[in-house]
Batch of 3 targets.
Target 1
Amino acid sequence: MRSTSSTIRTLRAARTAAAVIAGALALTLTACGGSHDDKSSSDKSSGSTQTGGATVTLPKLDGQHLEVAAVWTGGEQKNFKTVLAEFQKRTGAEVTFVPAQDPIINFLGSKIAGGQPPDVALLPQPGAIKQAVDRKWAKPLGAEAQAELAKNYSQGWQDIGKVGGKQYGVYYKAANKSLIWYNAKVFEGANGKEPKTWQELLTAAQNIYDSGVTPFSIGGADGWTLTDWFENVYLSQAGPEKYDQLAQHKIKWTDPSVKQALTTLAQIWGKKDYIAGGPNGALQTEFPASVTQTFTGGDQPKAGMVFEGDFAQVNIGETKARIGADAKVFPFPAVGAQAPVVTGGDAAVILKDSKAAQALVTFLASPDAASIQAKLGGYLSPNKNVPDSAYPNAVQQKMAKALLAAGDSFRFDMSDQAPQAFGGTPGKGEWKDLQDFLKNPTDVAGTQAKLEKDAAAAYGSGS
């Protein structure tokens, strides 16, 4: 995750589209529709299939075996296995999912050292793609995969899968990481309305607290959720230019803009009664539990709101809450001039070049594969040829439209752009520093100093 910046230096072509996306999201995010029939049809004999007018042709691969590694668990893993099963059915290849651990680069390193690398890996940090290329693990995409990618993806999504001008990654999965989900019964009981500004969010939190419910659930045991909090506040408050500079470490974490963002975050993190279990409880709560505890317990859940991306739907689905009715969502409120939009994603990268591996990545670049997982929920694709009807409800359809409406104008998750040692390793770097800040939100200066020290070491080494 995730959720969920390939070469840190090539990503800057992205432009923010916060106003466009937030506006589109705000229109009908809380609507809920029924499921739609999948309009894809498949020709099992030829391996040629159609979805939304697009066609992908796959070779026969009887007798071949593929291993695919990803840091996906629970419903996300189960749904992806459904996609792999379809590839297996169409080609005859045998496909095995390999559960990976964070950080996946370390996991892959041990596999490669042991002579058993998976054929394909889903890399959740674009910076990890560059590391895989630099270490000569990753293999460039072949002509068929590149053609499918060019047909279905905007240039911006293609570019973040490139290293040194060569295409290595296919962004199979995307995430809108600028959303706050809320328990509709709690909001109703607190006479709450969906906030559009940070101050309105603070007011809503106080109203929820006064109604007898803790306002926020935070999955602080997973440091990446805290980086997402920071990035949304920072992008909206400091603006896209500063965001890009900090993402590239062209300005230091001791910059006044970082102080301002941390001070703003402390308006929530610094109120222990606003956080389910207090800071210590949050630091023992993993992301899935932070979501489910917001939507269980009737009108007295452990919290009224939980911040995270569209992928939280998978966890909401594990409760009895109905998305669009019991569980609703609003865009992350504007802290500065406009609401932020932060995206993430997972890219398929080939580690063992073969006809079968190339065919699988070609399939993952097609609307066929994305439509299968879209129908299962908790998933967004940057593939522009996935039909709206592939998504199971109006909430997801609007999220997908908003994502695609940005075109090439988006801001990618900042921590995913950083070297993994800083932005993507449990117990280290930004993840650990923000966990410490959640524990002690009064230490803004100390947190900045630690962030800068860790960032300087990681960017200096490129690791």
Target 2
Amino acid sequence: MRKQFSVTIVMLQLLGACAAPLGVGGKANAPSDEKDLPEAVIQLAAANQNVYSARLQPDGCYWYEYHGPVETTLLPLLTDDGKRICGEAGAGETTPGYAT
């Protein structure tokens, strides 16, 4: 009986390892299509960011998923000079097409 229980536990752990990991917000960690982002946003973003995971948030700015060693978190999408990239609703930040 104990051997059968141990085999069941090991099989459940192996099956759990095959599941897709969940990212921020419970979504699977799959890169979004380039078509989701305006080309101007991709051109404005600094090189060390994952622009293909970026999305427009309720604050009016673009945020991207940063996959750290412990957790995945959302960080603001920044330009080379450190300004946040925002849509038209984000006041005081860099707006694609209207960059200064």
Target 3
Amino acid sequence: MSQSHPLPMPTRRELFSNSNHFFAFGFGSGFAPKAPGTAGTLAAIPIYWLISDLSVPLYCVWLVVTFALGVYWCEKSSRALSVHDHPGIVWDEMVGYWLTMLLAPPDWYWMLAGFVLFRIFDIAKPWPVSLADRKISGGLGIMVDDVLAAVYAWLAMQLLIWLVV
């Protein structure tokens, strides 16, 4: 994103006093000066490690709840900053990573593979990810393109697991 002036950011105080900013900015990982989406995805890894033992139904509930909350938090944070899909808003990357890791073994090398696959598809935005990114607005739009990228990453991950395990 090339702009002549910097995008508005919540202050550190606002980050910790406003739950919408706190979660939308991935507990502060979205403050990374370079590649905040990558930083947000990295912030999702320890949480994945904590939730990886959930049963599949509970893990799916986790995904649905974090997606729904993400729509709300990202919408509120985006509106407060007057910037749609602010680069520092990384909750969508976090949920995308967790979706990528659905049914994956919780070993470090699978966590790394999921990270790489998700980042590739999130950055490349193959169709219909690119279409959703352009056409869907608000908090839903912020979340949906990353979830669609995660579906591609999940399919690639499942294929990789099937080939290796």
